[in-house]
Amino acid sequence: MPPLDEFARIRSWTEHRQPKALLEKAGVSLGIGDDAAVIDGAPGMQWLLSADAMVERVHFLDETMEEADIGYKALAANVSDIAAMGGLPKHALISVCAPPAWNAMRIGRLYDGLYACANKYGVAVVGGDTTSAPEHLVISVTLVGVVEAGRAIKRSGAKPGHIVFLTGPTGLSAAGLHGLLMQSRGAPNVGTLPARLVQAHRRPAPSVKAGRLLLETSWGESLNDVSDGLASEAWEIAEASGAKLVLRESALPISGELASFASAQGKRALDWILYGGEDYVLLGTADGNRQVALQALFREEGLPFFVIGEVEEGTPGVMLETAFGVRKPLGKGGYNHFPEG
Ligand SMILES: Nc1ncnc2c1ncn2[C@@H]1O[C@H](COP(=O)(O)OP(=O)(O)O)[C@@H](O)[C@H]1O
Ligand SMILES: Cc1ncc(C[n+]2csc(CCOP(=O)(O)OP(=O)(O)O)c2C)c(N)n1
Ligand SMILES: [Mg+2]
Ligand SMILES: [Mg+2]
Ligand SMILES: [Mg+2]
């Protein structure tokens, strides 16, 4: 078998392995490949199912996250996948695999953060599993959400004539992570880390309200949450929709904190914005005719909404238009758990 990256692996393990009839009988309206599966429920409603794990050394280190932050973020990352379908998160199952260094008190603090997130987003924690582990902590969350039947917003709805939007800025989490790692290595020029960047990394704020607005108005046509990076998620929408997305560099939101921190660190803010990941904001598309109304609605609700590009006729893919108006293909770059296969 040729080397496979993360996404090719998932496909190779799961594609064409179950008869359509079985999936239909199980009420699977949308299976593997989107932010959450969509399963038929009582008349008028559907269930949304998603799972995401966090692993010590891969997603966090003692130096980057407090225990409570790990619990908070493990659930928030799942809430974000439900938001990315336009749904509401409801019930969570939590699995913890704990090595000796993680005693009961440390895991108790992890649960302080997890329940803080659960209570904030109205999620009932209803079970899970606990095991020992040899070396590193793993926390896996399975989250169930609900959505009005037939209304979940998929990655595959992008069409020419749409605008491309973000429900929040990207790049802050990666910048925060960079600062925390530099600080832990005793780098001399880090200074005081901007609190907003550290907060973005440790306690992401999934866009549940934004997802609901996009569904309730029927104005959200495609949606994906940004976990691996803006470029990677834009490619997922492009591929699922068979559409060409053009992102405009000059329209990408960049906060003052991010710009000044990047320049103080000798880093390109654009790299964090496009490829950093763990932003847990929503990237989506909507009919261009709805742009003004959407902007007004989000303003009224006090929520951010950034138009960052357009969907055009052409070969499916993602282009970046530079500030000088030059267009170039945007690489798929972003976080990949098995980049070389
Ligand atoms: N080991 C696995 N077995 C079956 N399905 C998987 C597995 N890993 C991921 N998936 C599915 O593949 C799709 C892509 O996963 P992922 O990139 O993790 O999505 P997301 O970035 O939204 O969390 C999702 O629909 C997910 O449910
Ligand atoms: C110590 C450390 N190194 C690197 C990262 C960056 N990082 C780890 S996983 C990841 C991508 C998102 O996680 P993933 O498990 O791919 O979530 P999913 O796409 O399934 O939602 C990123 C950017 C980090 N958070 N901490
Ligand atoms: Mg997702
Ligand atoms: Mg995932
Ligand atoms: Mg990922």
UniProtKB/TrEMBL annotation:
Domain PurM-like N-terminal residues, every copy: 33-147
Keyword annotations for this protein? ATP-binding, Kinase, Magnesium, Metal-binding, Nucleotide-binding, Thiamine biosynthesis, Transferase
User: Record-annotated residues binding Mg(2+) 2?
Assistant: D52, D81
Q: What is its EC number?
A: 2.7.4.16
Amino acids binding ATP: Y111, G128, D129, R155, S227
Question: Where, in this chain's numbering, is Mg(2+) 5 bound?
Answer: D228
Q: Does the keyword Nucleotide-binding apply?
A: yes
Family assignment? Answer: Belongs to the thiamine-monophosphate kinase family.
List the protein's name: Thiamine-monophosphate kinase
* Species in which this protein is naturally found: Cohnella soli
